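User: For a benchmark we're assembling, each entry needs the component sequences followed by a predicted structure for the full assembly. Here are entry 17's components. Please fill in the structure.
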Amino acid sequence: MKTLYASAAALALLAGSAAAQDLKFAPGADARFNWASYEALKSMDLSGQTISILGPWLGPDRDLVLSVLAYFEAATGATVNYSGSDSFEQQIVIDAEAGSPPDVAVFPQPGLAADLARKGFLRPLSAGTDAWLAENYAAGQSWADLGTYAGKDGARALYAFPYKADLKSLVWFVPENFSDAGYEVPQTMEDLKALTEKIAADGGTPWCIGLGSGGATGWPATDWVEDFMLRVNTPADYDAWVNNTLKFDDPKVLAAIDEFGWFARNDAFVSGGAGAVASTDFRDSPKGLFSSPPQCYMHRQASFIPSFFPEGTMIGEDADFFYFPAYAGKDLGKPVLGAGTMFAVMSDNPAAQSFIEFLKSPIAHEIWMAQTGFLTPYKGVNTEVYGDSTLRKMGDILLNATTFRFDGSDLMPGAVGAGVFWTGMVDYAGGKSAADVGAAIQATWDTLK
Amino acid sequence: MDGHAGTRSSLVWAVNLAAALMVLLWTIPTFGLLVTSLRDSDQIAASGWWKAPFTSVQSDFVRAGTAPDQVAEGEIWVIAGNVLEQGEKLRAWGTDSRDPMAFAPGDVATLADGRTLSVAVDGAYRLTSPVEFTETRGMRIFITTLTPPRFTFENFTRVIGAEGLGQAFLNTFTVTIPATIIPILIAAFAAYALAWMEFPGRALLIAAVVGLLVVPLQLALIPLLKLHNDIGLGKGYMGIWLAHTGFGLPLAIYLLRNYMVGLPREIIESARVDGASDFQIFRRIILPLSFPALASFAIFQFLWVWNDLLVATVFLGNTREQLVMTGVLRELMGSRGGDWEILAASAFISIAVPLVVFFAMQKYLVRGLLAGSVKGG
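Assistant: Structure for entry 17:
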């Protein structure tokens, strides 16, 4: 009996080590990780079962998501087939309509998930998941609302699980350029505007702004407008704007658009002049920060942008960011604009629902956190795990947000949020008045009703 | 043509000039792509490809060494090194981002805390301090240099070394070869029937085939995939061969039928008189005579299937084992795209096989392109 136990233990050890080789961080080794949650996953036995996942991540991002999925496979015995597509939005619709959807789909935009839920292609997540989100995510109710859609029968339910967040309210700068010129990081929007004027008065160019993005040209400007919607108007106004109870040509919205115009439509404030804003590619625009002499001092963009910085740039040393500040004169707290990906189940495969359970475990978040490009609003994780101090700083902004709002253009109907809002902002950058642009966008929205 | 020598030569001159211009115009983008594929991403961001072959003035900065690089020289601490890369010539340098050309080569700059920095003509710099250096990130030295043209094969090695490219190459062949042969087989029979067999409704059928030419294939993606799923075909090679066959057939039938209808009636009728069956006529007479048209369609279809990404991702799927080459190359571009240098190198790697096919069969292409345009013959 004793030898049997011993050999069984040895076998288990062997099997364990074989599986552990594929895992990025050996289970149990690093005390910062929540390994208890990993061990708990082993109670789900899914051996022999297969889950297919379709998502938008390619290249390096794909390797990162695979490193997380490996833990699910190792703990439960399931096999996960992840495939990525850069035309995810089209592909998922084709697959769903044709009747060969993946088991789990990763939506970069809640609007698209809501569409598919309404057509009956998504399966509601297990009961209690929405309460779990509200309790365990920072600003949890807003996250739960993001994944709650009306189904085919019209009943609202939680269909998509938010996992992996992006932070949008960030301004990137080169600390050494700031210290050469004696500039300080602004704490309020009033300071930021004063700094902008000061840089221009000193003969420099404060901002690099680029709206170009191929067929999606204009989207970076929608982020600016959304950030200002949260800084000049209340969160309630923002929500009303997103579902169009507050019209696009309302003076409150036009005020937010004109705040963007204050920065982008002034030749002295933008690298290349206001005319270059719409034609500069957003991927090229941050490079001006690093040129000699600097073409600009600041760049407002989401947390992903360092992948377009010149090779070898060290975040935190060569480049850093600060929170896109709020007006001190307005009592609106510290609003944060973000985005995130939503996991939804598209088949009746029971293993797919188990996969969503996996996303609720801290370890699913910590593995990616410990690498790069991942933020989470999950309060149950150990922020010590973050791969670098920059991510930790961003994670803190996310966890300390008094108001978190999702990228509004992703929530609007496709024809607006991924259509006239983009082109309207290009027109605005080109000199059209905010009132004209707002009226044109509202006119399109009216036709959708 | 005799007796018009004068007019002819002047016309030839004009035609040649026009042809040369057209060739130039058509090759410029390809040439630009080639040059781009040999530059790195920072160069692409900094200047256009047409500036690549010239020496350029560039402003940049390099970082001086850090604390571990220092050596003690008597009373002072020194960090030394070189700011220039192979072939660069120093024009000016500076220490402040707002005035990057403050000093000439050979000057000595006095910095805060009693430090000095000098950069010599050959790029050797010397940073001195009365106290020990402690920094972990070196100070920036801004340099303005004359940089000779520089090209790199790194983009190509990155693409060729990409994970899964070999598998994808095989997948593409597995898709492309049957997807080229099957439509030709079917279309040749159909074209013969439409050209030389009398049956009611033939003209209508031809009109229908011509009509199908203008139907965009995107329209058929969802219904076709639905059909494949319903009959249990699902996603796989069988499905994609059928899909490509379907999408390629209208053009194939139209092209081959127009060619075959132009073959001399006498040959076919004398064969009929001799008692040949339709199949014998098709196999012994029509097929050998139609070879140029078959070859030219084969090239068309091969190129289209080879370059296809849309049909492959819909009917074959997206997993690593199923990806075709265009899929892997797209993956290299990353989630947000924008890697021009990779795109350019990928383009050149992926056209290698189609180029071989094209040159091997090009003598048929020209004859085949004229298929059906010249009656008789």
